[in-house]
Amino acid sequence: MAADAGNGRFFTVDPLTSASFGGRISLAETSTLDSAVCALESSPALLVQALYDAGGLLYLSGLNEISTEPGLLTRLSHLFGPEVEDYEQTLTERSKIHPECPQILQITNMPPSCQMPPVPPDPPLTAAGGLPVKFPHRRGWHTDQSFRRPPPDISLFYAVIPSPPGQGQTLYADAAGAYDALPADLKATVEALEGIHAIPGIGRAEYAVKAGETPKPLLPHQWPQRQPVVRTHPVTGRRSLYLCEAGQMDWIDGPFVGMEPGPEGDGAKLLYELMMHITQPKFTYVHEWSQGDLLIWDNRNLLHCATWYDAQNHQRLMWRTTTRGNPGELYSGEGRSWLPEDDARPMTGL
Hints:
Structural class: alpha+beta
Radius of gyration: 20 Å
Region (Disordered): 328-350
Strand content: 15-25%
Number of strands: 15
Domain TauD/TfdA-like: 45-322
Family: Belongs to the TfdA dioxygenase family.
Keywords: Dioxygenase, Iron, Metal-binding, Oxidoreductase
CATH superfamily: Clavaminate synthase-like
GO molecular function, one term: dioxygenase activity
Number of domains: 1
């Protein structure tokens, strides 16, 4: 990774020291963040290329101005794709949408949204005393909105009020590096395989099927969607494993097309094997959040995972945007599976 990315005029980038992928961006000195964003907008391809060169993950710190000027986040988001999702148009609950910028999803335990974090893993630490990252000890690994066709490209995640140190970390896994390291026989197994991805909270996740829950009736824009298990990046050409684990796959008809379905089927065994491979510590990065941090990642070749924080005693407010526009040739000419009809209504889990 070049240390003088952007020719040094707009930013420099250095490798993340605690991971085999990812880059830390240092913006050139300007009077305001607005000036820095204007400079990036004048040559938008530079930051995008830095993302690809870094394996799909960029980290910027000290961007505190975004918390009072949320439009800066949407402007940065537009550098990475022609479209930034407007959550008002996709039936997202109003309480989760930023009141001034409908392109910003608010992820917080604060009213009126009151979203709770995932439960901590059991046991809370590894045998060596570290933070668990490997599935199934660590649950919740996914890629954003994989239950849509075409799925999104890039996500941006910003810390307005982070959780306390040592809590609420976000974990990332390099699914391209994991694919490269697959044994030849497993590569052959997954080559033409499709996964069935489902919206969380509709009764089709592993835990729901095991508990005997009745799946919810779905409108067309909520139906599970097939995605290739091996996905080729439309820009870099690298192949990666495009998967989620238990909560975002369809465990009634899947998790894989053409394999024995359900939690006890052959498909479940394969998914567990693949997820355990992808989430090995050598393929992961753990981000400890500070106020003003911004992480940018490529959903086409990275997985990520939220972690527990003490939501009873600490407030946390994070902003997320999602861009789309280049899912790859596989999706060429497709309509958007996830656009609701005029009379559709929001549902829990979206």
